[in-house]
Structures are given as C-alpha cells and as structure tokens.
Specification:
The protein contains five helices and two strands, in the order H-H-H-H-H-E-E. By secondary structure, it is mostly helical. It has a single domain (4-156), classed as Up-down Bundle (Four Helix Bundle (Hemerythrin (Met), subunit A)), CATH 1.20.120.1770. It has a two-stranded antiparallel ribbon with strand order 1-2. Helix 2 runs antiparallel to helix 3 (60-80). It starts with a helix and ends in an 8-residue tail after the last strand. The chain crosses the membrane at residues 26-50, 62-80, 92-115, 127-147.
Length: 196
Amino acid sequence: MGFLAPVGMLAIRLSHREECGTRLKILFYLHSISQMVALLLSTAGAVLSFKNFTNSFNNHHQRIGLSLYGIIWLQALVGFIRPPRGSKRRSLWFLVHWMIGTTVCLLGIINVYTGLVAYHEKTSRSITKWIVALTVEVCLLALLYLFQDKWAYIRKQGVILGNDPAVRSIDRVVVFPQDNNKHKETQSISLVQESL
C-alpha cells in the first residue's frame, strides 16, 4: 500500500496533461487498478492483524491503522460514485476525493513510521535501515509529486514557438522607426563579468 497508493496518485496527476484518449484511459486505469490493489492489500493486512495479533488498540499504530482502514474504504466508495465530467457535482466530488486521498497518503506514511516504532519496542530489533528506506521512498515520491507541476513549464523553456526568430532573455529587440516594415534586429547585451 505504501507504494501503490502514491503511484496511483502520480498517475492520475499526469492524466490532466494528456489530450490523447488512449493515454488518458491508460493513466486512469493505472490509477484505479493500483488503488484497488492497495485497498485489497490493506484489507488482507487488517484481516491478518485481527487474526494473528492481540489488538487492544493501545498504541498509535493500531489506532491510526483502524481509522486509516475506514478512510480507505470511504475513498474507494467516493471513487465509485464519480459524477460525469461537466456535472455540477463534479467539482465538489473532485475536492472531496482529492482531500480524502491526500489524507490517506499522509496517514499511511505516519502509520508506517509508528508501526516501525511499535515493532522496535516489541522486539528490540533495529529499525534504522527500514526508517532510512521509507524516508528515501517518501522523499523521492514527494519530489516526483512536486516535479510534475513544473515538468510542462520546464519543457517549454527554450522552445521556439511559430516562425519567429529565437530571442534569448538577455537579448534586446530594437525596432528602427525609419523602416516601414519594422524589421527587428536583435542586439545581444554583452554581460560583463567583473568578478573574474
């Protein structure tokens, strides 16, 4: 679940940039399938937990896990009642679905950390490598999440649109008034590097 849910979130965030119907469907199904598999795995984990462990809900991991399990099922139900595009309820649905999904991801991350601490307290085994691995995964996924917003902007930098000549940001366009066609001449501003 700690990997599938974020992958599904990243896939659906990519879909709003797609115009091709096939790619859009692939990203939507990747989102849906990864979320359903994460839901099934969390259900299996909950069943195993109730079956094999004494669950007195006396630690944070168990309490967060129980609330997270309920929220995950709520998120799945909200996902299944998605109104069609163009519907007046679609904006409200999107906001609710996004808020619940973000809550699930944040609570899931917190619950894995609290689970590792509970494991350490119960067994006295070292959890350092697991903490490091989880932290690296969370950081990479967070960077990917944040990078998605800027990817389209980064790709457009340096792209020449249309047939206009490329003008760098350090160039200056000068229009000479004596020419009726107003041809543009580009003069580079020389950058003086006095610090060298």
